[in-house]
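Today's session is about reading a structure prediction critically. Students often jump straight to the picture, but the first step is always the sequence itself: look for stretches that repeat, for charged clusters, for runs of hydrophobic residues. Only then move on to the predicted structure, which in these notes is written as discrete structure tokens rather than atom positions. Here is the chain we will use throughout the hour.
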Amino acid sequence: MLQTRSWIHAWLLLLPGLVFLIAFTHLPALTTLWSSFFTTPRGRRPAKWAGLENYETLIADPVFWKVLWNNAIYAAGTIPLSVVIALIMALWVNRQMVGRGFVRMAYFTPTVLPMIAVANIWMFFYTPGFGLIDQIGGAFGFAQTNILGSANSALWGVMVVTIWKETGFFMIFYLAALQTIPTTLVEAARVEGAGSWTIFRRITLPLLMPTTLFVSINAVVNSFRMVDHIFILTGGGPDNASSLLLFYIYEVAFRFWDTAYAATLTVVLLVFLIVLAIGQFFLFDRKVHYR
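Below is the predicted structure for this chain, in token form.
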């Protein structure tokens, strides 16, 4: 009887969270999947069953493949750099140093800024002729640049903003993990004559691998969901050179008002995220924990 009451109490405690999870996560996902098999309702014309027609349109859509390739480049460029720089920053501010609290605050500050504010700051940096980059480059005799206006460099400019924004957030997790590593392990290694690099490679890095797995999964999800800065910096241009999959979904749904095709794109995005997250977890989870 006591066990039954404990079970009921546990489910009652979980109930509010489950209601919000189902209402705002699972139910919209199922609704989106169902909508992808219908046409977009127009005025008085209701939605009609379309089967796999939207998915056939997606396969033949050159813009979809372009933004998907952009997203792959964006993820491949931002994820490893953000993680590595965050680790270096955490190692640096974990040491005893003058002004350590100020340095930590400076590293973390970009994280608390809204992405729209960050994009406007970097818009000032990137402005041709008047921006900070051209002002500094001009002082050394370099020609003016138009990073966001060139199809060859627009995506890279957006990636720099993302890395600058995310590294401080990931640094906090690494910093917390570094402070849980027993000092006795490091002291014992130094007694045995191990140098700083050996201690990092043999002790610090292996003990940080669970945090690295967590950070990398978050970085993958962020690489597909962060599009706020694209609205301000490039608007997806020029010629979709900096457009990402989520931004393309927004354009299809709210600019072109094709909600059925946008639902199809969203299903594809969700499938990508699920496969990547599950793959990361099951492929690397056993490699990051000591058994």
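Discussion point for the tutorial: The mean pLDDT is 86.
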